[in-house]
Amino acid sequence: MGEESLKLSKAELEELCLKQNIIIERQDPFNDTKIFLPNIEKINKMIREFDFLVDGASRGKAVNEISTIERFLFDNEQNTDARSKFLATCYSNASMYIDKHRSLLEDKRSENWKYLFVNYFKLEDIYNYFNKKASASTFFKTYAIYNEMVTLTYYVKLMEYLRAQVELEIPVDDDQDMPGRIDDINLKVAILHELGFIEKLKEVIPHNTLPNMAKFITILCNEDPAIWRDLLMKLRHLNLQNDKDPLTELNLNKAHEIMTVFGIEIEKD
Question: Comparing C-alpha atoms, which of 125, 143, 119, 121 is closest to residue 5?
Fold first, then answer.
């Protein structure tokens, strides 16, 4: 969806976008033809406005939902079972939604987001954005990606609140509440990183540091020895916030959830 069509030919639209520096013209070296690429500096302005509106809309939704939860908890102050079940349901719903939309969340965190972002819009849409008469909010609300991102960000914000509430309200029941087996190597790396273990290894492995770290962690985590090279690449991209970085928001959230079960507190800078 988007604003009403300009009813322009493709060539006319490209010419208008070139004049406004929305796209740039390049020569394809393989077949000697002209190609048009989005001007990322221009697109960054669109992304900044998009992010600002998403954050504001999702924050408002989260504040309203948290108020509703707080009212329920207050009204059922003496009913521990009802409070626990209610919070567990809210937590489960938020967790399932975030997990279902994991790829979008990881795309948003990646350094390639600006290029992925452009693909959600046709050239005509982007032209309309830079020539819109209505507000940016009115413009973006007609696109599915905006509404999906508002909902996803809302659940991420809500989860921050719910995690603290669940820890307070739902008692740990020995073996029943033990986390399941951790099979994902990215999650294992995230946990080791949050514990400061990876930084410590860098200090105690002075020679051939990253390869030796990768091999040691592979064995320590009972992984197939053949994966150590793949793990080496993950360590090289650690904290770079790109698509190869295992420290995604989802993995860090899961790592903190697991550590919370065991009462592990991480000091924040």
Answer: 125
Tens digit of each residue's pLDDT (9 = 90 or more) over 41-75: 889 999 999 999 999 999 999 999 999 999 999 99
Only one residue has tokens 């020679």, namely: 207
Using a 10 angstrom Cβ sphere, with 0-12 exposed, 13-18 middle and 19 or more buried, the burial of residue 136 is middle
- Using CA atoms, how far apart are residues 122 and 176, in angstroms rounded to an integer? 50
Residue 113: CB atoms within 10 Å: 16
Contact 129, 141 (CB under 8 A): no
Contacts of 63 (CB under 8 A, 6+ apart): none
Structure letter (DSSP) for residue 243: T
Whether 23 has a pLDDT exceeding 80, the answer reads yes
- What is the distance between the alpha carbons of residues 148 and 112, in angstroms, rounded to a whole number? 19
Lookup result for tokens 């295992």: 246
pLDDT in tens, 195-228: 999 999 999 998 999 999 999 999 999 888 888 9
pTM (predicted TM-score): 0.59
Short-list 245, 247, 242, 253, CA closest to 99? 253
Task: Determine contact, residues 118/38, Cβ cutoff 8 Å.
Answer: yes
Looking at the DSSP bridge assignments, the partners of residue 33 are: 28
